[in-house]
Amino acid sequence: MLILSRKEVEELLDPRDLVPALEEGFKALSAGQLDVPPRNQVGAPKGVLLGMYAFLPGKPFSVKLVSIFHESTPSHQAIITLFNSETGAAIALMDGEYITAMRTAAASLLSIQHLARKDSKTVAIIGTGVQAESHLKMIGTLVGIEKIWIASRNRSAASALASHASNAHAAESIHEAVSNADIVCLCTSSPEPVIKKDWLKDGVHITSVGYRPPGGELPRDVIEASNLFVESKRAFEPPPSGSAELQGLPADFGTELGELLLKQKPGRRSEIEWTVYKSMGHAMEDLVAASLVYEKAIERGMGMKVEL
């Protein structure tokens, strides 16, 4: 088995490879080519442990275990194991925190590329944690973005994150950031909405990656007034498989991102409508990203091999 540390995963996972690989993964997901059972969880007094499994023909089996303990730092900790899909042998164990952060931000970027207005120039990132950092890194690869607003209830943390990019600025408030943005990225662990409907510009695209059942960061009235996109229709199931913010909505209320990429369903329908991408995090994304890391590690002779 090949063991890969966080530092090695960071070196091996290239965002330029990840985005197109995820695009193909979303297409395969909506085409019914993956075997992905519902996410499961076991609970403890202060947090939960989630299990996420996936298989795509031609790839290994992947298993991610992620713990979510909101009182701990970091709040999300994860490992990913790959198994040879021909023999069943365990072939790799790697840090999953960086993969989770980057694949989530890369999927948000993919939604921005296909759903945001082409003349979008300003972005608001709400939050200052791991997901906000990875979103800032991925959005830095977008052409045409002139200003990135960083906003949080902790302004000093927003200033610290904004210092990581020359075109990023700390906003005085979340309201200021959102009301000036063509694209809004919600990256919090808030159990309640962090934005309001009347703050939004016409034609805004929103990405939301927060997970905090039984609540969440995305307002219901914004969801209901938007053209909604999800990774999988399982997002409408009860947590932990689905999103708390989407409970009670029919599955046909949202479009899978893969359906859009396969040109089976339309994307943005006008320059003034709101589009929303609500991410739950999907095992396909972990499989795609971890497979890229593993293939690069073999190619470059990185990692530590151990006998179990």
Topology:
Blueprint: E1 2-4, H1 6-12, H2 15-30, E2 40-44, E3 47-55, E4 61-68, E5 76-83, E6 90-95, H3 97-115, E7 122-126, H4 130-139, E8 147-151, H5 155-162, E9 168-170, H6 174-179, E10 183-186, E11 205-208, H7 220-224, E12 227-230, E13 254-256, H8 257-261, E14 275-278, H9 283-300, E15 304-305
Parallel strand pairs: 1-6, 7-8, 7-10, 8-9, 10-11, 11-14, 12-13, 12-14
Antiparallel strand pairs: 1-15, 2-3, 3-4, 4-5, 5-6
Helix pairs in contact: 2-3, 2-9, 3-4, 3-9
Question: Could you please describe the fold and organization of this structure?
Answer:
The strands form 2 sheets. The chain has an 8-stranded parallel sheet with strand order 9-8-7-10-11-14-12-13. Strands 2-3-4-5-6-1-15 form a 7-stranded mixed sheet. It is built from 9 helices and 15 strands. Helix content is 31%, strand content 24%. It has helices spanning 6-12, 15-30, 97-115, 130-139, 155-162, 174-179, 220-224, 257-261, 283-300; strands spanning 2-4, 40-44, 47-55, 61-68, 76-83, 90-95, 122-126, 147-151, 168-170, 183-186, 205-208, 227-230, 254-256, 275-278, 304-305. With 308 residues, it is an alpha/beta fold.
